[in-house]
Design a protein that fits this description.
Layout (H helix, E strand, L loop, with lengths): L8 H52 L9 H10 L16 H8 L9 E3 L12 E5 L7 E6 L4 E5 L12
Antiparallel strand pairs: 1-2, 2-3, 3-4
Length: about 170
Amino acid sequence: MKKVYRFTHVEFIFVLILISILPWLLHPAISSKQSEKSIRTTCSNHLKQIGLALSMYAQENKGEYPPYDGAKGLEMLRAGGYLENIYMYTCPSTKDWDKAYKNNEIREEYCSFEYRAGLNKASSGDRAVAWDKSNNHANYGNVLFADGHIEDFAGAKWMENIKWNR
């Protein structure tokens, strides 16, 4: 008769611990590319929410977007109740969300997006309204256009896709 080996309680617990720790050890190697992609997607979604808020603002203001460049224009959206979640004005790849949350208002130093005033709902769809600040991502950026669509651009010169003139 063949002898059957049985695990001791200590060996069994050791195997369970090893199995539970293994995914944590492999996680950085597996998810580094996925996490950057998810950060980019979240950032793009935040710009999309800003675009919807701009659209609501414009509906109540004769088709015009907020009249101030930068964080001051975006703060009008937050203060006006169009997009009150302060987190939406930050990119998850930065630490801006923490500063914005503590201050509960949008300021240039911790807003992750640039905003260009002077456009409206009737502006050409190829005109950029808001986009990532250049230090949000490495060689990558999201751009919100006047007609509400978002495009993501890769490469060191991604900002060349933004049309600055009104």
